[in-house]
Each structure stands twice: as C-alpha cells, then as structure tokens.
C-alpha cells in the first residue's frame, strides 16, 4: 500500500494530470495521508455513515454476509466487514476494513480486500464537508491495486426519525493497476480524475425495519463516457440494539471495465451484523 501512495503522490505532483489537477489532488493527498505510511467497482460506505442512525461517541459493527453473484463472476462468496466510528456534534471519523472470500471448484480463494477512511466536519445542520481515502485489491476485477482520495460537500436535504435524504459530491483522484496476466491490458496503469456523487435515502417502515437506498454516479472528468454507477437497495431489520439483519440487491455498471470483465454486475446479499 505504501508504494501505491508514493507513486500516486509523485505522479500528481509531477503534473501527470495536466493543468491544476496535479496540484489540487496532491494537496488532498497531503491532507489525508500525513506520511508515506499512512477499473474497479464502486464501494458503498454511505449506509454505514448516516447521521440519522449513528450514535454519538465511539461505536462499531461487524457484518458477515453471503453473496450470490452474476456478471463478471458466477459464485457464492462470503464477506466479513468491520467498521469503527467516532462521532461528536461537529466531527465524524469512519474506518472500514473488508475481506471477501469465495469457494470455487472446492478451493478457497481470496477475492477482495479493502480499507477505507472517511472524515466529515459539519458546518451547518444541512451542510458538511468530507474527505476520504481508500485502498483495495480485487482479483475478480483483475485489480492488483486501486487507490483513491477525494473531498467535497455533503448536503442533508432532510433528516427525521421516519426518513432522511442526503446528497454528496466530491472531486476524486483514482489510481488503478491491473494484475500481470495473459490479457491484452495486463499490467495497465491509469490515473484519472473523477466526480463522485451519491444520494442516500432511508425510510422507516416499522419500529425495527428500514429501507435504505443508495445511488452512486462516478463519471471520469476527462471522458464522461467512462461512467460508473452503483445502486444498492437494502432492507434492514434491527431486532434489538445489538443485532441487525439485512437483505439487499446491488447492481454495478462500469462503462469501460478491464478486458474479460463484465460491464454489469449484480448481487443478492444477506448480512448478519453485530453492533458494539
């Protein structure tokens, strides 16, 4: 991961993006990553990060889920996700770590690892600014490495106990390196600026049941035809203060995926979560 961030910062600072992009994104890296230690599917962390349901102080969750996937892969996969959150009235920090595994032909294969850090500062009841950094590996999508950083505003359109709706947009720098295999684009590297926008809606259906809808749209700023979209619909049941159960459908579209990777992926997911 350290080598990825070094390469990312050096290429931006060297002006590989041209004009002011290198300066802007290098500054973002400098803010988010205080030191060197410090084509992919969109990862939805917004459902973990909603002020309408998040408590003050320190909290965390651990989720175990089962996926049935079609598109780039046809398999049954397990996923373990752990997150920790620290929240005060103006500040929120979220840290997410995720690992995915799958059984294929009686063999256990590692499919994906991800680390995500996000900071949010609330300026007004309806306005906040947030910054984030992420690193991941994804064998299914032939990614040897993906690193991104970004920052932008977040707008709370309304937030009540019965329902909430938020919208966010960020300028994002994204570095990708494909694994070295036998495909035509093996080892390819890309460094792109993207606009990352999302809409998160939550509706309380019953005392312990909610419907959560998240939509991401991420066009590449140098070519809007290179578009990524993620839509996730979750039904979340909370039988008590410690446990959650969710069922969801996820559809992800990538207009320019790596060779041999499908443009459209779908997932049916069930998850069992524990809060602490």
Structural overview:
Helices cover 9% and strands 63% of the residues. It starts with a helix and ends with a strand. The protein has a twelve-stranded antiparallel barrel. It is mostly beta strands. The chain has helices at residues 2-13, 21-32, and strands spanning 57-70, 75-87, 91-104, 107-124, 127-138, 143-159, 163-178, 189-206, 209-220, 223-237, 243-254, 264-275. A hairpin with a 2-residue loop joins strand 4 and strand 5 (127-138).
Secondary-structure topology with pairs:
Blueprint: H1 2-13, H2 21-32, E1 57-70, E2 75-87, E3 91-104, E4 107-124, E5 127-138, E6 143-159, E7 163-178, E8 189-206, E9 209-220, E10 223-237, E11 243-254, E12 264-275
Antiparallel strand pairs: 1-2, 1-12, 2-3, 3-4, 4-5, 5-6, 6-7, 7-8, 8-9, 9-10, 10-11, 11-12
Helix pairs in contact: 1-2
How would you summarize what this structure contains?
Helix content is 9%, strand content 63%.
The parts where pLDDT drops under 50 for at least 5 residues are: 1-6, 16-40
Shape: globular
Counting DSSP E segments of at least 2 residues, the number of strands comes to 12
Average pLDDT metric: 79
Give the oligomeric state.
single chain
Structural class by helix and strand composition: mainly beta
Which features does this protein show?
single chain; mainly beta; 12-stranded antiparallel barrel; 12 strands; globular; disordered N terminus
């Amino acid at each position: 991961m350290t080598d990825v961030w070094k390469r990312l910062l050096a290429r931006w600072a060297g002006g590989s993006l041209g004009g002011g992009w290198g300066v802007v994104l290098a500054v973002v890296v400098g803010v988010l990553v205080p030191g060197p230690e410090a084509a992919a599917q969109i990862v939805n962390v917004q459902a973990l990060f909603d002020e309408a349901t998040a408590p003050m102080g320190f909290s965390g969750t651990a989720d175990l889920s089962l996926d049935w996937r079609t598109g780039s892969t046809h398999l049954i996969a397990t996923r373990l996700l752990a997150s920790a959150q620290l929240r005060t009235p103006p500040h929120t920090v979220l840290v997410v770590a995720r690992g995915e595994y799958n059984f294929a032909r009686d063999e256990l294969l590692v499919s994906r690892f991800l680390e995500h850090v996000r900071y949010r500062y609330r300026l007004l009841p309806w306005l906040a600014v947030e910054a984030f950094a992420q690193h991941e590996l994804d064998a299914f999508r032939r990614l040897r490495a993906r690193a991104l950083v970004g920052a932008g505003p977040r707008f709370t359109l309304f937030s009540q106990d019965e329902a909430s709706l938020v919208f966010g947009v960020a300028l994002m720098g994204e570095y990708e390196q494909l694994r070295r295999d036998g495909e035509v684009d093996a080892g390819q590297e890309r460094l792109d600026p993207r606009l990352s926008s999302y809409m998160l809606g939550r509706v309380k259906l019953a005392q312990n049941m909610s419907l959560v809808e998240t939509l991401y749209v991420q066009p590449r700023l140098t070519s809007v035809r290179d578009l990524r979209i993620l839509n996730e619909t979750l039904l979340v049941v909370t039988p008590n203060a410690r446990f959650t159960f969710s069922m969801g459908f996820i559809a992800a579209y990538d207009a320019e995926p790596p060779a041999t990777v499908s443009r459209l992926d779908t997932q049916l997911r069930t998850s069992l979560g524990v809060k602490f």
